[in-house]
């Protein structure tokens, strides 16, 4: 039976014609930053969508600029060209209300010469003010324009109809072969003897890895070095990245969803509306991540803003890995490492033993070590400890250092169990939980880290009132 293939559609056009608004409309989420300021989008981003029965991969791109030097605008244009090369169809957007500009005509000519499949969309076409611009769009020589409104969702049916001629179909695998129901306990050896194939292992879910840090510490350079291509814009300009850009990737056969984020400055210095949107986007990415790699500049290790970001990651319960970038330029490496360890010990005790890797993103040094560390931190973040083992450890800890006396009576710790992972979260049942000092909770948390080998992992301790230990006979 024929099945429609997924179609990759790259949305291109001059700045501020509504490309990101359409992208968000199609994917059904506000993934791309949208503002009236021209040139908000700098890197291209892709997301899956299903519109009118069509499965699409929609690509949002930076505004096309007629610049060919080494400026930021020229680098943005080259990024857009890379996105276009990967697309099945190019959706060229113009602003029907503003009319057809000289830049629109220039890029329409360029697209005609490229011999790429192009669909012309006239955006902001709602109302009488757009009629003249819609008629002018015919002059571009790209066929009949589709009248749409990305803001209000108008013209989506016509949009789907325009894409249908480019959808290819492929045959499904041999149909009609009955699948053999296999017992759940059938092992590989028995299956082979019976001439059966066991069901395939489910595909592992992608590890969500966010790259964060202050502006200009090398986050985007690190992303490009990891994936082996110039996927995101880099350059000397601070604040280059605005949108959080996700890259689907795999390392040693393990799927990774790598997210580059905007640099986080001190809150008092975040003034412009666009930067506030970018910061909010970065915070959203941190909350969705499994492992957060905090990139530090080796010339300025762990300043106040770095520590603020690290605390935020730990408070959100994400697994933290620190990458000391530009390490090749450091003269006294031993002193720099000691400085960072001392600062972490005093200023970030809630993530004692956090994994740290020295790298050079530009030269690609120790990136395999960084990724090994990321997956190790991810495994620890998913760690579960059996309840019986926990309570044997708890007994040893309380015998070595009994809970304090309160009002002349000693607090009684009944038992402990792990209630969840990601991050590891433990319920501690106490006779009077409100009275248990924070120092004693920290003593137990530090003991968990040391005995069960969970350095740097955010550990949560929930105090509960309990009268007896249901695991006493384990």
TrEMBL record:
UniProt organism field: Aerophototrophica crusticola
Binding-site positions, GTP 1: 13-20, 60-64, 123-126
Keyword Ribosomal protein assigned: no
Any single biological process term in GO: ribosome biogenesis
HAMAP family linked to this entry: GTPase_Der
Protein name: GTPase Der
Coiled-coil stretches noted in the UniProt entry, renumbered to this chain: none
Keyword terms of this UniProt record: GTP-binding, Nucleotide-binding, Repeat, Ribosome biogenesis
Lineage start: Bacteria, Pseudomonadati, Pseudomonadota, Alphaproteobacteria, Rhodospirillales
Record's function text: GTPase that plays an essential role in the late steps of ribosome biogenesis.
Domain (EngA-type G) ranges: 7-171, 207-382
Molecular-function GO terms, alphabetical: GTP binding
Alphabetical list of PANTHER family matching this protein: GTPASE DER
Keyword field contains Secreted: no
Positions with a binding annotation for GTP 2: 213-220, 260-264, 325-328
Subunit structure: Associates with the 50S ribosomal subunit.
Family: Belongs to the TRAFAC class TrmE-Era-EngA-EngB-Septin-like GTPase superfamily. EngA (Der) GTPase family.
């Amino acid at each position: 039976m024929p099945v429609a293939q997924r179609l990759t559609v790259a949305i291109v056009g001059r700045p501020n014609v509504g490309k990101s608004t359409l992208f968000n409309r199609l994917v059904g989420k506000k993934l791309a930053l949208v503002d009236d300021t021209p040139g908000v989008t700098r890197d291209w981003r892709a997301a899956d969508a299903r519109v009118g029965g069509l499965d699409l991969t929609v690509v949002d791109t930076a505004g096309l600029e007629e610049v060919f030097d080494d400026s930021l605008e020229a680098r943005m244009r080259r990024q857009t060209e890379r996105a276009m090369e990967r697309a099945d169809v190019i959706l060229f957007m113009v602003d029907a209300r503003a009319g057809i500009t000289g830049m629109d005509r220039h890029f329409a000519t360029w697209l005609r010469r490229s011999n790429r499949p192009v669909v012309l969309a006239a955006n902001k076409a709602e109302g009488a003010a757009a009629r003249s611009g819609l008629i002018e769009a015919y002059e571009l020589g790209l066929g009949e324009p589709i009248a749409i409104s990305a803001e209000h969702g108008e013209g989506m049916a016509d949009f789907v109809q325009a894409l249908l001629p480019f959808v290819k179909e492929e045959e499904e695998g041999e149909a009609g072969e009955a699948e053999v129901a296999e017992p759940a306990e059938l092992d590989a050896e028995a299956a082979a003897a019976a001439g059966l194939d066991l069901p395939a292992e489910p595909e592992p879910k992608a590890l969500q890895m966010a790259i964060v840090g202050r502006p200009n510490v090398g986050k985007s350079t690190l992303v490009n070095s990891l994936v082996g291509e110039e996927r995101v814009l880099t350059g000397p300009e601070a604040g280059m990245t605005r949108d959080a850009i996700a890259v689907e990737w795999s390392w040693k056969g393990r799927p990774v969803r790598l997210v580059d984020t905007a640099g986080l400055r001190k809150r008092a210095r975040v003034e412009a509306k666009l930067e506030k949107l970018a910061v909010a986007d970065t915070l959203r990415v941190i909350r969705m991540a499994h492992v957060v790699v905090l990139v530090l500049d080796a010339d300025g290790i762990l300043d106040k803003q770095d520590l603020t970001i690290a605390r935020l990651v730990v408070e959100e319960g994400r697994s933290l890995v620190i990458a000391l970038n530009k390490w090749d330029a450091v003269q006294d490496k031993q002193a720099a490492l000691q400085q960072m360890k001392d600062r972490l010990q005093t200023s970030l005790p809630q993530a004692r033993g956090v994994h740290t890797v020295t790298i050079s993103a530009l030269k690609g040094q120790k990136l395999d070590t960084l990724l090994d560390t990321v997956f190790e931190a991810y495994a620890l973040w998913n760690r579960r400890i059996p309840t019986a083992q926990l309570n044997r450890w708890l007994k040893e800890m309380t015998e070595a250092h009994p809970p304090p006396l309160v009002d002349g009576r000693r607090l009684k710790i009944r038992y402990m169990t792990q209630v969840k992972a990601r991050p590891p979260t433990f319920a501690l049942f106490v006779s009077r939980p409100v009275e248990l000092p924070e120092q004693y909770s920290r003593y137990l948390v530090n003991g968990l880290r040391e005995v069960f080998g969970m350095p740097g992992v955010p550990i949560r301790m929930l105090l509960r009132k309990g009268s007896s230990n249901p695991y006493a006979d384990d």
